[in-house]
Recover the amino acids of this structure.
């Protein structure tokens, strides 16, 4: 199974900041903390069946995930955001769970990457 | 690449990153600082507007704006910016996902300058920021130019309104210089004797201002003003604390200024003052600011020159007044003087005064005595003429002619002339007292007439008098000759113009030399004292 984190995108982050590893670590921490909150937000909105409230967390998690290299997670968020904007998400709880699982995988992969250094 | 400024140095921008996602803000801010800009962050539209409107923060050059945000989204921010004249010129770059092109179009329609994909690409970010910054800089430069122009116009307008009021001009110059050269304190010093004194100042603490006003500056290396006095050119001290020769330290301690720029206020190479500007931080004045300060110093120089010119005119007028009547002296130096001197027709009241028995007196008294008497008579009568604001036309030996209502208009000219005559008659009694006791009966006779005359410069190049030609003047002269000792004869027209202001009574009809028919004449009632003497 491919890593949930796209190595090239992730390497690019370090590259863009001129190899500032400490900054990238800090950025990843921000991503994980914020991601945690956004996933919780998605789950809550899904459980309550408020489709409109799925848009913003999905939107936010999408952009940061794509930038950090969690491409699959980003794609899940993009699809959910689009459908939520359309107003119809057939099984919101299952979609939120899928995103939660993808986030957990990305989380683990990012921490592993750090531990491997 | 950050756009190079006109002088070739890199000019970083201050960029506001507005995004509700901390990850995005952090990443963008890091990338912006990496290419030399300053990044400021806001979590939503509300916070962004608060930062943009904060009075105590330096201005934002470019806004990076996310669209989907809580509290206040990107569209609302764009609408608010469009409605705020102070903010609408700041370029906005919308951050948007590739699939959100519809929103991008909407943002561009709402005034956004550009857009940036959500998946950050540093090269694209740098290029977009550079182009928006260039746009902002162009706008700033235009606005600055307009600002400078309007400040210069303001000073010019003040100068044309109050060209001769040096204080008003210098105050305006100092205020404008502080504003446009971004100085904390500004002073215009004017050379007074051999020291430079504060003539106008603005922006400083009261302590600094007092110190400056109490300490005129002499030429010397120990101060900026002193150095300019020696060198004659603009001087900047980037940090007074680092300048060993700079010794104007009590003022510095009172004001805490660090950088000083001084430019000479000069005209035709002569320094008449110094315009000094200070900053409380070590921040040298740039070339455009020096050029502005020089421009303001030139305006101050015109103000100083005008004020000096005015002083000269006042002094000349003062000297002139010793030879001419004050009215004529001020006429010579007044703007409409030339037109009045050229000749004009006006109703005047003329008064002639002659001494009776003067010929006998001058034949029998010693010449020194005659001159002594004349000096006293002239001084007394001259003073009365000035008191009554008459225009003295001539003063010859024992006679004099005065007219009223010209060059200065005097509604009550007839009454003034008659009152002057009465006053002369009264005072003459005192002057002639001593001579009367010695057997010389000296008396005055006066004639007054009102009518039109042509007034202006009479004479020839090198010897001009201010005088008039007209029947009223001839009539006044004839009445004066016809008057008995102590008598004041006035023409019918003067009598009616008096309208009872001074009591007078008919004195019959008289045939006067040069007039074909008899003239109705009136006599001003003698005062008790005058009546008693005659």
């Amino acid at each position: 199974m491919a890593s949930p984190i796209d190595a090239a995108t992730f390497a690019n982050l370090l590259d863009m900041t001129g190899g500032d590893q400490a900054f990238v670590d800090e950025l990843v921490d921000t991503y994980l903390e914020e991601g945690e909150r956004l996933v919780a937000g998605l789950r809550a909105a899904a459980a309550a069946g408020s489709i409109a409230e799925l848009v913003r967390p999905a939107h936010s998690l999408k952009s940061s995930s794509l930038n950090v290299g969690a491409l699959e997670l980003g794609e899940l968020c993009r699809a959910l955001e689009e459908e939520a904007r359309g107003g119809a998400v057939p099984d919101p709880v299952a979609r939120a769970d899928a995103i939660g699982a993808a986030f957990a995988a990305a989380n683990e992969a990012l921490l592993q990457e750090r531990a491997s250094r | 690449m950050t756009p190079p400024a006109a002088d070739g140095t890199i000019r970083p921008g201050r960029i506001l990153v507005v995004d509700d996602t901390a990850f995005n803000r952090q990443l963008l801010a890091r990338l912006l600082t990496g290419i030399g800009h300053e990044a400021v962050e806001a979590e939503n539209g509300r916070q962004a507007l608060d930062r943009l409107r904060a009075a105590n923060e330096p201005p934002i050059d470019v806004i990076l704006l996310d669209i989907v945000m809580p509290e206040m989204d990107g569209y609302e921010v764009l609408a608010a910016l469009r409605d705020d004249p102070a903010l609408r010129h700041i370029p906005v770059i919308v951050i948007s996902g590739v699939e959100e092109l519809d929103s991008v179009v909407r943002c561009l329609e709402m005034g956004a300058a550009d857009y940036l994909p959500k998946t950050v690409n540093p090269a694209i970010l740098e290029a977009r920021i550079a182009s928006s910054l260039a746009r902002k800089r162009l706008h700033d430069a235009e606005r600055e130019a307009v600002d400078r122009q309007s400040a210069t116009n303001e000073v010019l307008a003040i100068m044309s309104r109050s060209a001769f009021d040096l204080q008003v001009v210098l105050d305006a110059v100092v205020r404008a210089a502080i504003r446009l050269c971004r100085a904390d304190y500004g002073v215009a010093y004017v050379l007074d004797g051999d020291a430079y004194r504060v003539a106008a100042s603005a922006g400083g603490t009261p302590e600094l201002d007092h110190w400056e006003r109490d300490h005129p500056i002499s030429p010397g290396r120990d101060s900026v003003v002193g150095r300019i006095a020696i060198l004659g050119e603009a001087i900047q001290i980037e940090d007074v604390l680092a300048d060993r020769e700079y010794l104007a330290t009590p003022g510095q301690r009172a004001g805490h200024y660090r950088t000083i720029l001084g430019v000479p206020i000069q005209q035709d190479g002569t320094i008449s003052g110094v315009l000094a500007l200070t900053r409380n931080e070590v921040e040298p004045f740039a070339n455009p600011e020096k050029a502005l300060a020089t421009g303001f110093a030139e305006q101050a120089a015109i103000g100083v020159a005008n004020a000096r010119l005015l002083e000269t005119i006042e002094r000349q007028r003062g000297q002139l007044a010793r030879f001419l009547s004050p009215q004529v002296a001020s006429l010579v130096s007044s703007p409409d003087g030339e037109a009045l001197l050229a000749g004009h027709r006006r109703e005047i009241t003329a008064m002639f005064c002659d001494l009776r028995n003067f010929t006998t007196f001058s034949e029998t008294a010693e010449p020194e005595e005659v001159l002594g008497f004349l000096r006293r008579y002239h001084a007394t009568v001259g003073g009365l003429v000035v008191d009554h604001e008459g225009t003295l036309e001539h003063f010859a030996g024992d006679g004099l002619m005065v007219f009223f209502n010209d060059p200065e208009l005097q509604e009550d000219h007839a009454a003034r002339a008659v009152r002057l005559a009465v006053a002369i008659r009264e005072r003459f009694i005192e002057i002639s007292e001593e001579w009367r006791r010695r057997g010389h009966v000296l008396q005055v006779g006066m004639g007054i007439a009102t009518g039109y005359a042509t007034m202006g410069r009479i004479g020839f190049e090198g010897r001009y008098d201010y005088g008039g030609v007209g029947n009223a003047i001839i009539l006044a002269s004839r009445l004066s000759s016809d008057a008995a000792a102590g008598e004041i004869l006035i023409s019918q027209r003067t009598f009616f113009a008096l309208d009872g202001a001074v009591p007078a009574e008919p004195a019959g009809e008289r045939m006067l030399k040069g007039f074909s028919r008899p003239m109705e004449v009136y006599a001003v009632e003698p005062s008790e004292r005058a009546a008693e003497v005659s």
User: Anything to note?
Assistant: Chain A has five helices and no strands. The mean pLDDT of chain A is 92. The helical segments of chain A are 7-16, 21-48, 55-68, 71-86, 92-115.
